[in-house]
Amino acid sequence: MSKFMLALSILSTAFFAQSKQISVSVLTEQNLVLGNIVVYLTPKNLTQNNMSNKIEIMDQVNTQFLPHILAIQKDTQVRFPNSDSIKHHVYSFSQAKTFELQLYKELNADPLFFSKLGSVELGCNIHDWMLGYIFVVDTPYFGKTDINGNLLLELPDGEYQLDVWHPRIQDKFSALSTQLTLPGESEITIRLGSPLLPDVNQYENISGEFSDYE
Amino acid sequence: MNRTLKCRMTFHSKILKLFFLSLFTVSVNGIAAEVKGLVQLNYVKADEQSSWFDKGTGILAYSEDSANVQQAFIELSDNFANGLSYVVVANYYQLGEQNLGISQAQISYKPLSRNKLRWRARVGFFYPKLSLENVDTGWLSPFTYTQSAVNSWIGEELRTAGLELTLYSPGRARNSPFSWEFHGALFKANDPLGTLISWRGFAMHDRQSLNNDRVPFAPYPSVIGRERIFHPDYVEPNHELDGSIGFYLGTHIEYYKQSTLRYYYYDNQADPLAVSNERLYAWRTKFHSLALQHKFDSNTRVLGQWLSGSSVMGNRFVYIDFDAWYVMLSHKHKAHRISLRFDKFKVREDDIFPWDPNNSDGRGYTLAWRYDLDKNWQIGAEQHINKNSADIRASLGENIQVDQQQSLAVLQYRW
Hints:
heterodimer; A: mainly beta; five-stranded mixed β-sheet; 10% helix; B: 9% helix
């Protein structure tokens, strides 16, 4: 038992010695906090990413995509369940994944495999107000900022490129890229240079129930 | 005048045949269709004034306290990868002359598009989307059982047998809170539209007419008399009598999913002198319809519709101007929905026969409660009262003015 405890303490010491928690905040050009922003850190010396065996979920609830933005690692499968009692016809014209999927109520479609990087814009050909995004990254170190505009990530020491993405961000992608070496700075703030595109998220706030007879 | 039709087959039944033929072609390569259905059973405490279904002059559907099948339908539909889809609604009605039939059958084409400006089309036998009340499956109202005077009339007399083209721009494709649609349709048939509101007046119910339906009304002497207008005491709304093509134009503007405006102009372009061998007339009917809805949040909404138009038959044998509107408040609390609607309607005549009085008007209040027990079962209750008048009742020795009320308890199963 004492040998086991010793081994455990050595292991955990070794782990904490090599990894570091960083905090990323995203602010608008007017210093307002921004939630739901995809933040991802790509290691400079990326050897081999472990393929994700996880199946991610992009659900349809009350004629909305849930979540509105889903960030996934490359080579992940995404399942599109339909929690509504009506059918959906999900499609994407995006380069990262072009597809269409007929989603009948109470029918499980096979998951789709996302192997290209970038954003995938989702629509529904029956409910034109539905809009969702899948953002595919090439790193296991990613997440979305919370309501206070913060994201905490645990990372091994090394060199990284930090990027952020959101469909409303107008700044050039490269303009918001940050180089990062760990251990080093642990609190990073990304400030946008340009105003965001108009906020039309109110489409998500009021249900489409009984809006039209389709 | 008195041009008779040799062919009994109405235009829309030809369309239906074509529809089913194309449906068959589509289904051969297709996958399993989606089948939805709904049954509503009611117990009604009816008004003393009997209904037009029983040749009475009341404006409510039921004549006696009784248990009934209020609604029963199956909706068959499918969507295909190329943007084609179809939907057919087959109904059973206990009330009325035709108990089994089709209320809607359409094929739609909506190509997948990422453009800001998009188009779609539908062909078949369908409703123009002018109502914000009839938004549940099968063109039912999810709010009250007894529908507004405006949409009770649309359901019993109006159906488009033709082609509708739509240009539209979803707000989300433009990152804008505003979406818009522009609709234009050409259609045949539906020539007798206007008959019911001219003689019986507006009514309030949920009985939609079926593909070859006949809607009866009281045997008014000025209507059925050989020396009078000499028209049967019923109308078959879907006939094509004059060969002319009707049209409607409509526009929808929507702010998020919160506020909606729908405006339509409808003109069946019928020749009012055309008459069939069963002495049904073509009625030149045109109207404006303006519908509005605002959702305060996901649970509470206010909606309304205003309809204003005119109808003429024969050599101005009957000419009416009509106006009808409603306003409704509906609130959902968990699985409960409560809706309260006020209706007002008026028909005024300006024609050559003083012995055929067509003036009628009224107002009504409808309060309904509906409770979802689960995703299949729903129970509900409704109280309706109205005050209405129709000058033509005098010709049957009845009081012109009548107060009516009706209570409903309804059990619904849907799948």
